[in-house]
TrEMBL record, chain A:
Alphabetic keyword roster: Guanine-nucleotide releasing factor
Top-level taxon: Eukaryota
Keyword Metal-binding attached: no
Pfam families given in the database record: RA, RasGEF, RasGEF_N
Ras-GEF domain sequence ranges: 286-553
Keyword Glycoprotein assigned: no
Cited SUPFAM superfamilies: Ras GEF, Ubiquitin-like
Protein name: Ral guanine nucleotide dissociation stimulator-like 1
Biased composition (Polar residues): 639-654
Lineage: Eukaryota, Metazoa, Ecdysozoa, Arthropoda, Hexapoda
Gene: LOC108565228
InterPro entries on file: RA_dom, Ras-like_GEF, Ras-like_Gua-exchang_fac_N, Ras_G-nucl-exch_fac_CS, Ras_GEF_dom_sf, RASGEF_cat_dom, RASGEF_cat_dom_sf, Ubiquitin-like_domsf
Automatic annotation (TrEMBL), chain B:
Record-listed E.C. numbers: 3.6.5.2
Keyword Lipoprotein set for record: yes
Reactions it catalyzes: GTP + H2O = GDP + phosphate + H(+)
Pfam families: Ras
Enzyme class: hydrolase
Keywords per UniProt: GTP-binding, Hydrolase, Lipoprotein, Methylation, Nucleotide-binding
SMART domains: RAB, RAN, RAS, RHO
Species the sequence originates in: Nicrophorus vespilloides (Boreal carrion beetle)
Chain segments annotated as transmembrane: none
The protein's name in its UniProt record: small monomeric GTPase
Gene assigned in the entry: LOC108560620
Amino acid sequence: MMLLPTATTLTFQQDFYYSVAERTKFFASKCRSLSPSLNTKDSSPKGKFRFSACTSSRRSNKKNNTKWYIKQPTWRLWGEEKADGALYTVYLKKVRYHRPTRSLSSSHSDSDDEISHLEWETVRVRFVKAGTLKRLVEALATDDGELETTYINVFLATYRSFSSPKEVLRLLLQRYEELADPPENGKPDHHEQHRKTLISALHVWLDSYPEDFKESPHHPALIQLVNFCEKYLPATELEAKVRHRLDRYSREQPPKITDTLLIPPATLALRTAVPEWKCYRLPNVPVRHFAEQLTRMDVDLFKKLVPHQCLGAVWSRRDKSRSHEAATVLATVNQFNAVSFRVISSILVEPGHKALDRAFIIICWIDIAQELRVLKNFSSLKAIISGLQSNPIYRLQKTWAVVAKEKIELFDELARIFSEDNNQWAQRELLMREGTAKFADTVGENDKQLQKIFQRQNNHSANISFGTIPYLGTFLTDLTMIDTAIPDTISDGLINFDKRRKEFEVLAQIKLLQGAANAYNLIGDIVFDRWFDSILVLDDREAYQLSCQIEPSQNNHVSKVKKKSSGHQKNDSIASNSSSNSSQFYCDIDSMPSSPHNSIERKLSPSQMSNSSSSSSLPSLDVSLNSSHSGRDNKLQVPLNSSGTLSPSHSQKSSPDFYVIKVTFETNSVETEGIVLYKSIMLSNNERTPQVIRNAMYKLGLEGNPDNYTLAQVLPDKEMILPLNANVYYAVNTAYNLNFILRQKKPEEAESNGKAAKSKIKL
Amino acid sequence: MREYKIVVLGSGGVGKSALTVQFVQGIFVEKYDPTIEDSYRKQVEVEGQQCMLEILDTAGTEQFTAMRDLYMKNGQGFILVYSITAQSTFNDLQDLREQILRVKDTDDVPMVLVGNKCDLEDERVVGKDLGGNLARTFNCAFMETSAKAKTNVSEIFYDLVKQINKKSPEKKVKVKKPRLCTLL
């Protein structure tokens, strides 16, 4: 049985159950329409998943005694209720419950067994729909002063989209202090209960999101908590926990950068210690072992994945000022790509191979994919399928023609899992059914090959159980769409908490699967790692060129000629046309301790890169292969494999945190004529035009009003004047050198401000 | 009813998802579920014909680079989106287009170039003329849109449907595009 890693108690059921109930109807209807094709063992297809979600209460805060044991609640929407600074949705619920009497000392003992009475009742339940931040923090305790556990889970998983740890902590402690005064009309007990609940909330927070309190070097949040405890809660469990935490963090070696730099060599050293004679060579490799090793890599990354980094507000908007905040997501994406690239290049790179040799490698990957299906690793499974379906591989008709028929069938069956039809229904359904099941057993009636495989597997290993590694992309798309479609605030600026509940439905699934991933028990193999790192990686253009060398395009004459000419253009433009490439290049430079100023000298890149890629042996391939991409990608593997050091700056497509730009000042002064004086300034990723102008003026020693200046990027045959309030980091043309010119506005220009600047935009 | 598979491509942060949501949902909604089967499906009437549009939005998965080929293989028409406030998102499209042509193995692919976020005029860095020029080299339609201000959103989808109709009238499309795996 699988458990949520964060504190969860039974109230979790209440609204999860509710939303699930609605969906189950949908799945049930879906199932009927498809019933012959699905091997339905469980009458409710959602059953496994829901059951685990609802019983996942273990690691919860033991002090919290929520006593609502729900059997088939019947819910009815009653309406909305507005209160000062908050909006509630109100439901009427018929419920059978038992509620033990709460002894005064019960906060430390589980008293679940003391059933005092048992009855049915209709109760009114309020859910916070929206509210000010202050109200949302207050709502951590219910009206009765109890801990609202669903609520706190949703809140802690999502609050970073609308607030910060610092702010929430401040409000929470402030609330505690406010409750110190006896209530005007209520019983003092009531306040006491509220305060206890707030302390419980702090415990839950500290336990489930320790990173929120870690801020080197001084960890101000923890110090604030220590002071708070000294004042209000001396010698309590909370104080002990906070002090211990502070102690531990202070003792840790603070500079993380050295860690990142030190680990790769260490790993490399380990790898060289492997006997040279032992190495893998496709297609003669143990496929089950390979599948397990890929899974081992995925499990490591998946367990480290921080679910809230997947939120639309973090992941899909991260280009603004927070690329580091999605590091664990990026690491997962990079691993996915790394696997796909390895599939592609392993099939293409040996120039001497015959069609049959390549077919064997394809078959080998299909076999590995099949094992991944058994292991329920949908991430690497999809990566391999994507690799085989990528254009450079897929178009090799002669090669596919010699792949055995049943292997093609198997490939088709595996590919069907990831069909995009009906919003990826097949894959969603499969994840629901098997997400927390012990082993894979779902097949469609047309999946003949998979049926055989599962049969064999079930005979052999009936008592082995696996976790599940999902393909993360589906969750990322869902969260991006939720973030786009549902407004952040409603009714005059109240924070839309229903949006966060919706997001939490997705995050809860991820957490559930992360817990399930503990079921894997896979041991690393250095020889495999070395093989994985040794595979050369091609970018899609290189892969396509190689593929065309193997099997020339079947297309007619005209398009061939066109292709060729466009191919030339491509070669010419490789160095300069793609900004994504150039930003990758920036990343590498930035991650090196050497001067970031190098990043301006883009022209250097080909030579630097070919140095790094020359180590990968490639006997007889033409020049196009030795391009920068492969070199870069091999480098990329280092941070991925050195367990735990997920440095976003190594990531493939991410932008660097800053650019270094060169700014010169244009004057009419005769003395400086002919002298170009550049100053380099840092351009970080949230700076707008006035700020950048101010920085440039400071560096160039200019005084005066920044509004009287304009800033323009110097491009080969024109200038791009930056609008008054542009996000410069985002706006610049990174395909060219980042050279800028600062100009004093002419008097009339300075007066007519914004509009004038706008009309001057020309490229 | 004829089905159209439309793929929305572009760098992260250009507002692809907003275009899709705006088109499919019409308004920004409080209740929204991206996980149901027809989250991205919409029936429209174009040139007197009822059409079912199935939109594949790559939002959130831009960086799963290895999967782009598959999107491109399955799509019949493409919406290439950049943001008028970010030069790099404009530059990225050249590569995407090349990749589409490679995958489709033809130069004639129904496509619309879209400069999004045109409500942010005072942050504009990509001029409208520049978008127009690129569209001419791409030999495709061009529009500036704003998902936020609901400018030109349906128009891009309608234009694309017309292009697909023109390129492959009647039911030819289904015959021309066999299921991925049966090709082998």
